[in-house]
Amino acid sequence: MEPTTKLDARFSDPTATATPWAQAREQLERAETYWLATVRADGRPHVTTLLAVWQDDAIYFCTGAEEQKARNLESNRNCALTTGASTLHEGLDLVVEGAAERVTDPGALKSLADAWESKYGSAWHFDVGDGVFTHPQGGEALVFQVRPVKVLGFRKGEYSQTSWRFSR
């Protein structure tokens, strides 16, 4: 699905152009680590780093049911995932905004388990249990999908801010 792309001139060099969605999507696919921001039940923010995969126009992550991020998503599914270069003069930083939805379909989970192992190696091998990932060394992980509503891109060097909005 192709989003609506907009350059925000207020935060861009005068000669900057909007970053193409294909470039942002490629970075979302290639990034190794991401930061997930959720909101605790009492309204305080919670941010943590994690691994994720981009597949089928969505970003996926997993977590144990007892972890803070899973508990936060029980009461408020809205979240943001970020990734980027953490440098001042080069790279593209991205913020994906959307609502996290549990993935429980066995076929989808199998495809995602394969994607995790392909991206991160055999240390990240998951089997599929009853609506969850299972790890050979024990434990279960809930899997979440975030279909972007909005993505923000901050390109450094030729400084620009691009937003991509998705209609559902």
From TrEMBL:
Annotated Pfam families: PNPOx_N
GO terms for MF: coenzyme F420 binding; oxidoreductase activity, acting on the CH-CH group of donors
Domain Pyridoxamine 5'-phosphate oxidase N-terminal: 22-151
Entry keyword Chaperone: no
Region (Disordered): 1-20
Any one Gene Ontology cellular component term annotated for this protein: cytosol
Entry keywords, A to Z: Oxidoreductase
Coiled-coil features, chain-numbered ranges: none
Basic and acidic residues: compositionally biased ranges: 1-11
Protein name (record): Pyridoxamine 5'-phosphate oxidase
